[in-house]
Amino acid sequence: MSEDATRTLLVELAASLFARGFSVGSAGNISVRLADGYLITPTNSSLGRLDPARLSRLDANFAHVDGDKPSKEVFMHRAFYTARPDAGAVVHLHSTHATAVACLDDVDAANPIPPLTPYFVMRVGRRMPVLRYYRPGDAAMEPAIAEAARDARAVLLANHGPVVSGKTLTDAVYAAEELEEAARLFLLLHGRHRRLLDEAQVDDLLRTFG
Ligand code: 13P
After folding, report:
1. What distance in angstroms lies between residue 183's CA and the mean position of ligand 1's atoms?
2. Which of 57, 104, 133, 200 is most buried per CB count within 10 Å?
């Protein structure tokens, strides 16, 4: 896909997330890998009103080369790209239900959301840990995210929100949407007798859909 088409797609997907309430105010940021660097949303921008020409462009070493000042969460995105060579895009949101799970103290921090539905497993994978709280923009989160990202496509940052990677921009956005829905189901089913997918069903999904 050309860089122009990538810029247009990023702006469209971001506006769609914003329109459906996955992001409010200036929360959230999105990045995508290019052949020779990255595009990332500018700091303090609203995902609802991005300008394709003003997206921040980073070189292959994540140095800002043009466009508006980049998101303060470049470290968060860099952690995924360096830990996961297959990551082509990263989406960070403060989406309500995933963030609610990230605020719970009585969940399994290694994997708080169990395999409730096939699409959660297919898009997000087998494991998604909760990492400890870091102040937004704190570079100290980078090594912690990078370590977790070696065997997780997504993480929850405690009291902050989800960070989700995907092979493509569309994959990363779809995964962030599935994660938000799974978190919503998880909270909705709290206290009920849930039927989870079993190990064989999860294995089958990952074998079939990758
Ligand atoms: P930026 O506006 O710098 O991208 O930060 C928004 C955010 O979501 C912080 O976590």
Report:
1. 21
2. 57
